[in-house]
Amino acid sequence: MKTKVLFFIFSLFFFLRTNAQCAMCRAVLENEEGQGAAKSINDGIIYLMAIPYILVFGVGFTIYWKYFRKKKPTNN
Fold first, then answer.
1. Residues 6+ apart with CB under 8 A from 20
2. Are 45 and 21 in contact (CB under 8 A)?
């Protein structure tokens, strides 16, 4: 347990600035002037990455809403 906590704290201090492009895409897009296509490619990759997170959040929220909300008593 102590090792996991130390690893987590250690990983918070060391992170790299990364780009979403693969090496081949970067090599092709760095040679372009204006960098418009490179920015568009990065935006598209971020968009494609965000969709699964949104779907998982939606499923989690639906499960929470269905099973964990308080039910109102019914008056007969």
1. 41, 42, 45, 46, 49
2. yes
pLDDT tens for each residue of the chain, 76 residues long: 778 887 777 776 666 555 555 666 667 677 767 677 777 877 888 888 889 999 999 999 999 988 887 777 777 6
Q: Which residue's structure tokens are 């090496």?
A: 23
Look up residue 16 and give its two tokens.
Answer: 């790299």
The overall pTM is greater than 0.85 = no
Q: Cβ(37)–Cβ(21) under 8 Å? A: no
Instruction: Show me where the domains of the chain are located.
Output: 19-67
Terminal C-alpha separation, the chain: 53
